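---------- Forwarded message ----------

FYI, see the CAP-Gly domain-containing linker protein 1-like record below. Original note from H. follows.
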Amino acid sequence: MREDKETAESQIDFLNSVIVDLQKKNQELKDKLEKMAAAALNGNNPSELDNYDGHDKQPAKKKPPPRLFCDICDCFDLHDTEDCPTQTQMPDSPPHTTYHGNKGEERPYCDICEVFGHWTDSCNDDQTF
């Protein structure tokens, strides 16, 4: 009978210690909740409050933004693929002519080279297409 009494007392002591631990944990959570509510009322975003649970912990550092990378040039930090200077788009219309001759005068054009400057019959290009 004495053993039953000692067992019951040890069980009561254990359960009392569990209750005390749970009450402490409950109070800590209430304190955190109050701090988060106060921060929200002050205009701070509660998700940004990384240091609400202790003064000894450093707040989590935010991740740096991803580095720029160009798939075309295969280089970091210069520009993004979308902004690559090698992929500049051609204008919709061809550039204006720089020829300032007489409009009535016929310009020499070569059908083989497809350039102005000489006639087809005087072309020196030996390649045929």
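H. also flagged this: The two ends are 114 Å apart (CA to CA).
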